[in-house]
Amino acid sequence: MSHNRILLIEDDPDYEELIAHILITCVNPFEVKPAANLADGLALLDEYSPELILVDLSLPDSFGYETFLRVRERAHGVPIIVLTGLDDDHVAVQAVEDGAADYLVKSQMQPQSVVRCVQMAFSRQRRQDSMSLMADGDRPASVLSFIGSKGGVGTSTTAVNVGALLAQNGFETVVIELQTGCPGTLSLYSQAEPRHGLNSLIEKSPAAITPSDLEQCLAEAGPCLHLLSPARLSKAAVSNAWATFDHDHVHAIIAAARRVCRFVVLDLPARIDEGIAEALRLSDSITLLVDREAASVQCAAAILEQIELAAPQETEVRVAVIDRTGFESPLALDDIKKQLKMHPSVMIPAASAAIALSHAARTPLVLLYPGAAYSLAHFDLAERLLPSSIDVSRRLSGPGLQLSRKVAWGAIPETLYG
Predict the structure, then answer these.
(1) Alpha-helical regions (H) of 217-351
(2) Three-class secondary structure of residue 386 per DSSP
(3) Each residue of 162-221: pLDDT tens digit?
(4) Which of 37, 146, 183, 418 has its CA 20 to 30 A from that of 241?
(5) How far is CA 41 from the centre of its chain?
(6) DSSP 8-state secondary structure symbol assigned to residue 411
(7) Are strands 52-56 and 5-9 parallel, antiparallel or unpaired?
(8) Is 254 within 8 Å of 133 (Cβ atoms)?
(9) Bridge partner residues of 320 (DSSP)
């Protein structure tokens, strides 16, 4: 049975064709089943079992708010987005107040707004389902932190690719770019810019930050994958561009994120201040990313010392080597191991040209080229980061491959993935 099934109840064939075309041809396409009147739509509710309903409030056999009430009665919790004309949007607002997921004014629809509205409705429902499971005794969300030895080693790219793999395997995942100022690499993967960004949470009192506040700041990067990064700053706000996060705000943001998603992936800057130290303290695992050149490794040694002071002793700390240098003779892996006094967990091969393509496609590279060496390395890293509490049936899987958490690493060869 396919996922993301949408029932579209719309009697105008032009709008039905337009909406279906938008949803079927978008980056992460949906399945759309049309119905030309309410009677046919209600009959399809049981037969088709949609996961989302789009319904025009003015139909041949039903009109206005009564249409919404009849659909809601039969939907049994399936999210409903109402479609309305410009003159009747007050009826749609009333429907939202009474339980509709959202509404769209048909004469003002743009492809991007339709897709974003539908994605947000699906995401909101998945998060509610996830929170219900957690309320029934499921374990709290895991916090996976990624921090670079210095800027430019690929921390954001690694974080979003690991997050994409977790999301692809059905885990609700949020990747948070924990920095102030303008949007960074993470924003390249969002399919639509949210109205609010991470900056807006900093403007609130930490005690007032709720999961609902955080949800309003999320950008969607695909099914189950959500991004939280700074929004573009207005000229009036530029003076705050270099502010840092304090302990209380970081604690509140991570606490809200853990109530929204199963995995919270933190993209941390290459420095440790009060806020970053709190993020490390709350992390279940910390992955330090290092390039194969001397300066990066020296910085990594200093960062490891600071991590040791900030994070609890039981926190898992790993080193991932990213082969990004253009040197003919990059630093040997044995030398990296000796200087850091840690055995690297994985080596991620260079893929700068492919990463540029993934930015243009607004899609993490592991989803564009799942069989490439770069992607296999991320599969391995993501699998290692799964907590032992994850049921064996939920291990990550890729195309033609099932990864196991129990595979022990030997020595990492110079060419790990052929």
Answers:
(1) 247-260, 274-281, 294-310, 333-340
(2) coil
(3) 999 998 888 889 999 988 777 778 888 887 766 678 888 888 888 888 888 898 888 888
(4) 146
(5) 32
(6) P
(7) parallel
(8) no
(9) 289, 346
Match 């099914």 to its residue by tokens.
223
Q: What is the spatial distance between Cα 247 and Cα 278, in angstroms, rounded to a whole number?
A: 6
Q: Cα dihedral sign for 152, 154, 159, 161?
A: positive
Asked whether 272 and 191 are in contact (CB, 8 A), the reply is no
170: helix, strand or coil: coil
The SS3 call for residue 172 is coil
Expressed as residue numbers, the domain containing 108 is 5-131
Question: Tokens for 152?
Answer: 């430019």
H or E element at residue 158: helix 155-168
Contact 292, 416 (CB under 8 A): no
- pLDDT one-digit tens code per residue, 251-307: 999 999 998 898 999 999 988 999 999 999 999 999 999 999 899 999 999 999 999
Q: Which of 73, 102, 131 is the last residue of a domain?
A: 131
Same domain, 114 and 216: no
Structural domain includes residue 408: no
The pLDDT assigned to 409 comes to 33
Backbone angles phi and psi of 55, in degrees to 5:
-135, 130
Domain CATH code at residue 21: 3.40.50.2300
DSSP state for residue 106 in the 8-state scheme: G
The helix (H) or strand (E) run that includes residue 130 is helix 111-135
Using the structure block, give the residue that is written with the tokens 């044995």.
334
pLDDT in tens, 297-334: 999 999 999 999 999 888 999 999 998 766 677 888 88
Helix 274-281 and helix 247-260: axis angle, to 10°?
40
Let me know whether 150 and 174 are in one domain: yes
**For residue 42, which amino acid is it?**
L
